[in-house]
Amino acid sequence: AFCLQIHLNVSRRIGVPQEKLDLVATWVEAGIFTEKECAALTWAETLTQLAGRRVSDEAHEAILRHFSEEEVTFLTVSIAT
Predict the structure, then answer these.
(1) What whole-number distance in Å separates Cα of residue 57 and Cα of residue 54?
(2) H-helix or E-strand spanning residue 64
């Protein structure tokens, strides 16, 4: 709860719309996230559901359609943290 509250406060401070914060748990069905946001959320789910597997080439190619290699590295570290 503590970490969630910190991230919600930061998100509000940087201007993330409340509607997106309210619906992030159902982002696939929400229909309000941009393609780039959906790519980042897909990447987050991919990395957190690996369970002994490796990231597929297809998943890596998909994230690279929206982010540079450097951005993917930063995104990956953020997700892992």
Answers:
(1) 9
(2) helix 57-64
End-to-end CA distance of the chain: 16
| Both structure tokens of 53 | 């597997």
Q: Rounded to an integer, what is the distance from CA 74 to the centroid of its chain?
A: 11
SS3 8: helix
> Residue 65 phi/psi, 5° resolution?
-70, -20
Per DSSP, helices labelled H in the chain are 2-13, 18-23, 27-30, 35-48, 57-64, 69-80
Q: pLDDT tens across 8-46, in order? A: 999 999 999 999 999 999 999 999 999 999 999 999 999
Q: Which of 24, 53, 34, 56 is nearest to 43 (CA)?
A: 56
